[in-house]
Specification:
This protein is mostly helical. The longest helix is centred in the middle third of the chain and has 45 residues.
Length: 627
């Protein structure tokens, strides 16, 4: 449902309407940063199974380079640079969540052409499939979908444009977030994660990832969404895990996919072997429910878009027309269909007509869902791997039923899942970027061209990065565990060999349906189930701080720019920048401590609460008197 506030929204238009935008200078800098962030995120993804958002740190870096070094004063150029940079991050996420399975198979020789092909076609599909959704999700749903990282990135860009107090607030958050990340993850002065068991409650665990970025995301998305995410996390960690521990305590034989009896498992082992599958089923069902709810609006928006293109008439004054132009739908439709045909007949992965059709249908389905999810919880919490799991399950079963089994069936299934995964990751990043562009007065078709260039540059390099890391550390080893890739290998082998835990998948899907009937957003809660509660907890803390500040504003009738959002944006930017720097140092061989100086969780908690207090204080200070 579109926001009632949408008609009141006036896009931010730069003071000079003729600012340079898609320039050679911006494209070159964007390619460099796309390759840099792509390599860094590939390494991080293979270590911890997740990547970090590149848009905000890219915006900060581009402002420093364009304004500080080269004296170029264009917010639109800065936006193009950060748009291209996120292509590297998205492509890295799609690659490291699926393709490591190819390296782990002992009887398969990894071919760089396969990696490059999968990355490029998946990336291009992600951009093309997102373009028709822009008016629906970015424009018509403005005010309803917050797009936390896209909105935060816009604040960073505008604060650099306006300078003064706004830029100072962003800089304060950037410094605090960066210092905290450097001390916790770089110098390992204290540990980043804390958790505690609930005494007398079997395997019930509460934890917190002390990430300033998650605190900032929670503040931006607000208390309602944060609370529903946490509800999913608590349901998994203090309901499902203890229940599995209790009912499985007497088991003397292993239950798939674990290799040890349930009675001997700790909470993390149960989460890894059981809750992941339940969460994947919940995310899949929640995504389908969300898509069904959106279909009427999606149809109307697509119809309006095609009519506008056919009539070549977007309406409004020239300034509004410029900020509402997408790439031609003819190019989008032709490009998508051409890619599907290439996938059908390609010599690298033998997916055939069935695989190409699955990519078309499931790709558009999950691109739509992903683009909406990131509008709610941001790209950092986008359950890309959950939707990829759903794709892998559907495709592998279809191949098996049609007689394509063994190594051929596994490779075809994984290839389809990898292409869809890459499309999902790129689409999520593209939608965040288009939201940023919408808020800063950018030209959509120029951003879309920039994203395509970023995908091309990153796709040609990512294969070399993965092979280099495998040669240095070996995929699946303790130095390069590749957790998501290992999971994909287990799944596809489980289907082909007939030992996949369907009961867990259906439990998750049924849970999502029940949650929807309770009046909650099943997709948001499902994301909370799939992610560790340690991720949802700091997001909830940020949401709670936002609730307190909003309550104060309402009670005192206060208005004006929310400097808490600016500071939260700075926290996200600071941690992301230092996180990428640490990844680069590790990649080039700079020694990083292996264990924290102190393992005392109270130290981490106290320091993190101090960061929370700075967010509350800055937001509170800016509401202390009427604007």
């Amino acid at each position: 449902m579109a926001s009632n506030n949408q008609d009141k929204f006036v896009p931010y238009i730069p003071a000079s309407k003729s600012l340079p935008e898609l320039t050679i200078f911006a494209v070159v800098l964007g390619i460099i940063l796309a390759l840099l962030f792509g390599a860094a995120n590939a390494y991080l993804g293979l270590i911890v199974g997740m990547t970090i958002s590149a848009s905000i740190p890219a915006a900060v870096i581009s402002m420093g380079a364009l304004r500080g070094l080269f004296r170029r004063q264009s917010i639109l150029e800065n936006n193009i640079v950060q748009t291209m940079t996120t292509a590297g991050e998205g492509l890295a996420g799609g690659a490291v969540f699926t393709l490591p399975a190819l390296f782990i198979w002992d009887d398969y020789q990894v071919n760089i052409y396969i990696i490059t092909f999968i990355s490029l076609v998946g990336g291009f599909l992600g951009v093309f499939m997102m373009i028709p959704l822009r008016r629906l999700l970015i424009v018509k749903e403005h005010g309803h979908l917050p797009y936390p990282e896209g909105s935060a990135c816009a604040e960073v860009l505008k604060s650099g444009e306006e300078g003064g107090e706004s830029a100072k607030t962003v800089l304060q958050g950037l410094v605090i977030g960066g210092i905290f990340k450097a001390l916790s993850n770089g110098f390992l002065v204290f540990k980043e994660e804390i958790e505690t068991a609930i005494s007398g409650f079997r395997n019930a665990v509460i934890g917190l990832d002390a990430y300033p970025s998650l605190l900032g995301v929670g503040y931006i998305i607000g208390p309602r969404i944060s609370a529903q995410m946490l509800a999913g996390g608590l349901f998994a960690w203090i309901v499902l895990i203890p229940a599995i521990s209790f009912f499985g305590a007497g088991n003397t034989t292993p239950i798939f996919p674990a290799s040890i009896p349930i009675g001997k498992m700790d909470a993390w082992t149960i989460w890894d072997n059981y809750i992941r599958y339940i969460g994947a089923g919940a995310v899949c069902a929640g995504g389908i429910i969300t898509l069904l709810q959106t279909l009427p609006v999606l149809y109307n928006t697509a119809t309006d878009t095609l009519k506008s293109v056919a009539q070549n008439k977007l309406g409004g004054p020239q300034t509004i027309e410029r900020i509402d132009k997408d790439l031609s739908m003819n190019w989008v439709i032709f490009g998508s269909l051409a890619i599907i045909v290439i996938i059908w007949f390609n010599p690298f992965i033998k997916v055939g007509f069935l695989g190409a059709l699955a990519i078309l249908v499931l790709g558009f389905l999950f691109v739509t869902v992903s683009s909406r999810i990131v509008g709610i919880v941001g790209t950092s919490s986008d359950p890309v791997s959950g939707m990829t799991i759903a794709t892998l399950l559907i495709v592998a079963i279809a191949f098996k039923l049609l007689g394509t089994t063994g190594h051929t069936g596994m490779l075809a299934s994984l290839g389809v899942a990898a292409i869809v995964c890459t499309a999902i990751a790129i689409a999520g990043d593209t939608s965040q970027d288009l939201k940023t562009g919408f808020l800063v007065g950018s030209t959509p078709w120029k951003q879309q061209i920039a994203m395509i260039i970023g995908v091309l540059a990153s796709g040609l390099i990512i294969g070399f990065v993965l092979i280099m890391l495998d040669n240095a550390y070996q995929m699946g080893s303790s130095k390069l565990p590749a957790p998501k890739g290992v999971l994909m290998k287990i799944l596809v082998q489980g289907i082909m060999e007939g030992n996949l835990p369907w009961d867990l998948i259906f439990i998750g899907a049924a849970s999502a349906i029940v949650i929807e009937f309770l009046g909650l957003n099943s997709l948001i809660v499902a994301v909370g189930i799939y992610l560790p509660v340690h991720t949802s907890m700091p997001i909830m803390i940020g949401g709670a701080i936002r609730w307190l500040i909003d309550l104060r504003k309402k009670e005192n009738d206060l208005t004006g720019r929310d400097h808490g959002t600016l500071y939260a944006s700075g926290l996200i930017a600071g941690e992301s920048l230092i996180g990428v720097l640490i990844a680069i140092l590790i990649t080039i061989g700079v020694p990083i401590p292996d264990t924290p100086w102190t393992d005392n969780g109270w130290v981490t908690l106290i320091l993190y609460l101090l960061v929370c207090l700075t967010l509350y204080w800055i937001a509170f200070r800016t509401t202390s008197k009427k604007a």
